[in-house]
Description:
Largest sheet: 5 strands, parallel
Number of helices: 12
Shape: globular
Radius of gyration: 19 Å
Structural class: alpha/beta
Bound molecules: N-carbamoyl-L-aspartate
Mean pLDDT: 94
Helix content: 25-40%
Order of helices and strands: HHEHEHEHEHEHEEHEHHEHH
Amino acid sequence: MTANAPGPEEVRKGTFRFPQRHFLSVFDLERPDVERLLDLAEGFVALNRQKAKKLDLLKGHTLINLFFEASTRTQSSFELAGKRLGADVVNMNPRTSSVAKGETLIDTAVTLNAMHPDILVVRHGASGAASLLSQKVSCSVVNAGDGQHEHPSQALLDALSLKRAFGRVEGLTVAICGDVLHSRVARSNVGMLGLLGARVRLVGPPTLIPSGADRWGVEIAHDLRTGLAGADVVMMLRLQLERMEGALVPSLREYFRLWGLDREKLARAAPHVRVMHPGPMNRGVEIDSDVADDLSVSLIQDQVEMGVAARMAILASMAARLDNG
Ligand code: NCD
């Protein structure tokens, strides 16, 4: 942790508060903001390992989770994060709400907004959905994933996992591999890792690398063995078949042979390499279980743990802004 790292007291006093009303994109953040969020999250990691895990930083505040797309990790960690900070948390399920009767995204959000929530955490299949909502409601909006666009809280939890594993993010070479085209995790990580001074390499078949990626300030490799050479971190991405129109990969067996991470391909990376995956994993498609489950290289479970702490830091600093104007 850096000197003068913010803790619950700074949040309570409002001396550290979230830089904007909404959290929509990593590209809205400055490096000092991220560093302070990471420091704040570190304190929450320790709290989450204790028997008594509750604080009152969000007491009196209401958080609504509005997830139009499936989620295990993100939704439950925002729920736990809100509850551990003392908020009232409501989970809306589009399958059993009026969304199932055809109510639009905007109508649903405006309806929920009329109940005076303080923070709306939104996941939606359309890029830009969270930003659009933020213009229609009076509460703060957190983007929990909008289509193929961004997933900023994932990038923060990934940075926290790396900082704890390596002691720093600056100077690390991070290979982000696989289905970059459909990945909001990749886009947010390109921004976040760039902000924190890491070197990013996008590795995947030409059909799964976005056409403008050569202007993102990253290296690009179209062969996994070349792309992994000397990497400190290998971040594997899920093959997002649900977002694909037509066949972008020949077959799953062929994909694993060329693009699946196994021991043999991982041997190209640095000896101290760490492997990440945002989950959910397609075992035997983009990653071999042998690598995913090896706790001496895999950070995948740490990422899940850091997800709660990182989201607590986001929510606590947003509450500091709400409470202190
Ligand atoms: C990711 C997502 O939803 O964008 N998952 C997550 O939030 N942990 C990645 C994915 O779905 O592959």
